[in-house]
Amino acid sequence: MKNKYSLAIHGGAGTILKSSMSAEKEAAYKGVLESSLLAGEEILKNGGSSLDAVEASVIVLEDSDLFNAGKGSVFTADETHELEASIMCGRTLQAGAIGAATSIKNPVMASRKILDSSDYVYLSGQGADQFAKEQGCEMVPNSYFYSDFRYEQLQAARGSSRMKLDHSTDKKFGTVGAVALDQHGNLAAATSTGGLVNKKYGRLGDSSVIGSGVYANDATCAISCTGYGEFFLRGVVAHDISCLMEYKGLSLEEAAQLVINQKQVALGGEGGIIGVDHNGNCSLVFNSEGMYRGSINDMDPMPQVGIYGDMLS
Fold it and tell me: Which CDD domains has this protein been placed in (predicted)?
């Protein structure tokens, strides 16, 4: 049976150890995930667009310092914060993305502005910040993204030439995202991240790259990825899932399982995806210990959230 609307979100994947997760912290994570789902679902149930819904859901996650996106973004090797985000419309295949931005409070909003009002798809650095400011996005000093927790992560990574994956002890891929089907049959996806701890040289991951970290096409699916960006870039993961559905006739779940649990594993990639197809079926697939995730739809309007490899609750 086709759902009238569906929404799924994620707050990052990786080796999220239960041993380092207190009951209070787990409740806090799940609380924000639920708030994100409800923000998007409020739009969908009232006939709003999937684009508006994924943007609203991601904004909630960006405004929380629990996730490595927006407010909770990690430090670069230069003790700054560089933000990435993207959004895509499945109906028109229009997309907007930013990379290496430093002053945009909600990067996903700037991505949406690009999709809606410019001739571009991808803006980076000072240009992305300038465009966002001209479009009326809320701008903040780079210090807005500071937190003691993130600074301690950077210090733990000092002296190493390797970038760290959000946590200095747990391999957690700090990305947030949302995918949705609206009542008009249109799909959309959005992804946002603060990148990797101790990253250098203006490194960009997959989160802001259309086709790798995000993709949406009404004929197939909407996908948002979370994982080690270099592997997801090499695998063009989001678009690959859509192609397997379009050209080989695989279901969303079959395509996602193939890409994440076979092709990415073969490359050495760790992480996961959230997806929704044109019938409203959701797929939340990961090859890591856990993934902050959740889903909601018109048939089951109670937020379902989870962290580890267990069922959503």
Answer: Asparaginase_2
Please give the backbone phi and psi of residue 137, each rounded to the nearest 5 degrees, phi first.
-70, 150
Q: For residue 304, give both structure tokens.
A: 């379902």
Asked if residue 136 is part of any domain, the answer here is: no
Asked if the structure places residue 101 within a domain, the reply is: no
Q: Which of 277, 290, 280, 276 is nearest to 9 (CA)?
A: 276
Token code pair at residue 121? 């798809």
**pLDDT at residue 13 above 60?**
yes
Span 71-93, average pLDDT: 97
What CATH number did the domain enclosing 188 receive?
A: 3.60.20.30
102: annotated active-site residue:
no
pLDDT digits (tens, 9 = 90+) for 163-176: 555 433 445 667 99
- Confirm if 49 and 185 have CB atoms less than 8 A apart: no
Of 12, 98, 103, 112, the residue nearest 55 (C-alpha):
112
Q: How far apart are CA 111 and CA 59, in angstroms?
A: 12
CA 50 to chain centre: 15
Tell me the per-residue pLDDT of 183-227, one tens digit each, with 9 for 90 and over. 999 999 999 999 999 999 999 999 999 999 999 999 999 999 999
Residue 290 lies in domain = 6-71+146-197+205-307
Is 87 domain-assigned? no
**pLDDT attached to residue 226:** 96
Among the options 102, 175, 220, 226, which is catalytic?
A: 175
pLDDT at 172: 61
- Is residue 30 within 8 A of residue 38, CB to CB? The reply is no
DSSP 5-22: -EEEEEEEEE---GGG--
Q: Considering its fold, how many domains does the chain have in total?
A: 1
DSSP state of 31: H
